[in-house]
Amino acid sequence: MGLFKPDNVELECASCKRTPTELGMAFFAEEGQTPDEYVWENEGTLDRLTGLFLCDECYIHWGMPSSPGAGWKATSGNLAALRMVHRDFGTWRPS
Ligand SMILES: [Zn+2]
């Protein structure tokens, strides 16, 4: 499908900084698929340029951001807009 993750892109939640492994994505990954590959192929908020996404807990905590048309992705611009609304963005940690 041409969806293979480049080795030089590190995946992490833009808010809590957890990686797909730390987020327990191995549970969802198919056989032979790494947690990173699972997120690369399935995470709707992933910005493939930066490797940033919002994990489910953070996405909900920060008000489930949306963008018209295409789904919301954790691009630099969208994250900057989120920080304008939530000055404490990135300080909250899921328990
Ligand atoms: Zn998170």
Can you give a write-up of this model?
The protein has 95 residues and is mainly alpha-helical. It has three helices and two strands, in the order E-H-E-H-H. The chain has helices at 35-42, 56-61, 76-85; strands at 12-13, 52-53. The model has no long low-confidence stretch (mean pLDDT 93). Bound molecules: zinc ion.
Number of helices: 3
- Radius of gyration based on Cα positions: 13 Å
Average predicted local confidence, pLDDT: 93
What overall geometry do the principal axes of the alpha carbons give? Answer: globular
| Total individual domains | 1
Please report the distance between the alpha carbons of the first and last residues: 36 Å
Low-confidence stretches: none
DSSP strand (E) fraction? under 5%
Structural class: mainly alpha
Quaternary structure: single chain
- Biggest sheet overview: 2 strands, parallel
Following the backbone from N to C, one meets helices and strands in this order, namely EHEHH
Short recap of the structure:
This protein has 95 residues and is mainly alpha-helical. The chain has 3 helices and 2 strands, in the order βαβαα. Helix 1 links the parallel strand 1 (12-13) and strand 2 (52-53).
